[in-house]
């Protein structure tokens, strides 16, 4: 995943990075094009995928057997389906992930400060709805 530094650093020259042979499981679709340069919006895509993996314990697009299948799914405009596990997904978090995975217009993805703020807000709502679950974690 690219470094997410610019939005929180006083040094606005901080850059995002990308490595060769990145996996389409976490990489924003627009970065798969020749000459594409990572930016804060592609970081948001990757961060959304990381959240999905942390909460579910499964890689994004885990149902795909190989990377070619993931490329096909992304080419069709598909993003990961909402998992069916109970008590881990609250609507505000899933809505946020869907915004992080905006495929057609990456510029509409929220900035990282908004993502963090909405996650904190969702955590407060979740704690109110499921206090035992949150305190046991």
From TrEMBL:
Superkingdom, taxonomy of origin: Eukaryota
Pfam families named in the record: PK_Tyr_Ser-Thr
Segments forming domain Protein kinase: 1-129
Alphabetized SUPFAM superfamilies for the sequence: Protein kinase-like (PK-like)
InterPro entries referenced in this protein's UniProt entry, alphabetically: Kinase-like_dom_sf, Prot_kinase_dom, Ser-Thr/Tyr_kinase_cat_dom, Ser_Thr_protein_kinase
Example of a GO biological process term: signal transduction
UniProt cross-references to PROSITE patterns, sorted A to Z: PROTEIN_KINASE_DOM
GO molecular function: ATP binding; protein kinase activity
GO CC list: cytoplasm
PANTHER family named in the record: INTEGRIN-LINKED PROTEIN KINASE (PTHR23257:SF969), SERINE-THREONINE PROTEIN KINASE (PTHR23257)
Name by which UniProt lists this protein: Protein kinase domain-containing protein
């Amino acid at each position: 995943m690219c470094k997410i530094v610019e939005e929180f650093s006083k040094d606005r020259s901080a850059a995002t990075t990308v490595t060769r042979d990145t996996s389409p499981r976490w990489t924003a679709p627009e970065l798969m094009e020749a000459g594409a340069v990572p930016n804060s919006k592609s970081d948001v895509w990757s961060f959304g995928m990381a959240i999905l993996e942390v909460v579910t314990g499964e890689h994004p697009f885990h149902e795909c057997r190989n990377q070619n299948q993931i490329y096909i799914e992304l080419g069709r405009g598909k993003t990961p389906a909402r998992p069916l596990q109970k008590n881990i997904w609250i609507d505000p978090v899933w809505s946020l992930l869907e915004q992080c995975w905006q495929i057609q217009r990456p510029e509409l993805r929220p900035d990282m400060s908004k993502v963090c703020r909405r996650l904190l807000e969702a955590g407060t709502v979740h704690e109110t709805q499921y206090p035992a679950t949150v305190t046991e974690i």
